[in-house]
Amino acid sequence: MAEIVLSNETVQYINLASKYSGASIRDCIVEDDRVIFIVEKGQLGIAIGSKAKNLEKLRMLLKKIVKFVEFDEDKTRFVQNLCKPYNVTKVSFEENDGVSVARIEVNPRDKSKLIGKGGRNINMIRKMAQRHHQIKDVQII
């Protein structure tokens, strides 16, 4: 797990999201027009809110796409959470000198969506996986 360094901007986003959602937020990545928050396990429903009102409020305030992802100590479940809403059929890990490479199997229809335009979705998944677990790389097969 890489050491997580938060910028002042990131801390402000986390404080704002905590205030409006009432959820415990563990991490945040701000990327162009998106903000991805990692919430503590069991806090996803609280973060999104009833009828997604917290999510919508944050989208309006930040004028960005907002996504909440639930943290999990189990790296397989965490990678699956990072890939939602796409249906992951299997996550396997290749261990090499204490470093893991995650291999994600996904429905062929969803593969390009999971990768995202210019690889932006898979890059975010890689970044979060590296920050929270001993995962060197994430590959979609």
Describe this structure in words.
The chain is an alpha/beta fold and 141 residues long. The protein folds into 2 domains: 63 residues, 2-Layer Sandwich (GMP Synthetase, Chain A, domain 3), CATH 3.30.300.20; 66 residues, GMP Synthetase, Chain A, domain 3 (2-Layer Sandwich). Helix content is 42%, strand content 30%. It has a 3-stranded mixed sheet, sandwiched between helices. A hairpin with a 2-residue loop joins strand 4 and strand 5. It starts with 7 loop residues before the first helix and ends with a strand.
CATH domain class of the largest domain: Alpha Beta
The major β-sheet equals:
3 strands, mixed
Structural class: alpha/beta
The number of helices is: 6
* Distance between the amino and carboxyl termini: 24 Å
* Contiguous uncertain segments of 5+ residues: none
* Radius of gyration over all CA atoms, rounded: 15 Å
Total domains, how many?
Answer: 2
How do the strands of the widest beta sheet line up side by side? 1-2-3
Sketch the topology as an H/E string, one letter per element. HEEHHEHEEHHE
Q: For this structure, what is the CATH homologous superfamily of the largest domain? A: K homology (KH) domain
What is the approximate shape?
globular
The number of strands is 6
CATH architecture of the largest domain: 2-Layer Sandwich
CATH topology of the largest domain: GMP Synthetase, Chain A, domain 3
* Strand residue content: 25-35%
Helix content: 40-55%
The pLDDT mean sits at 92
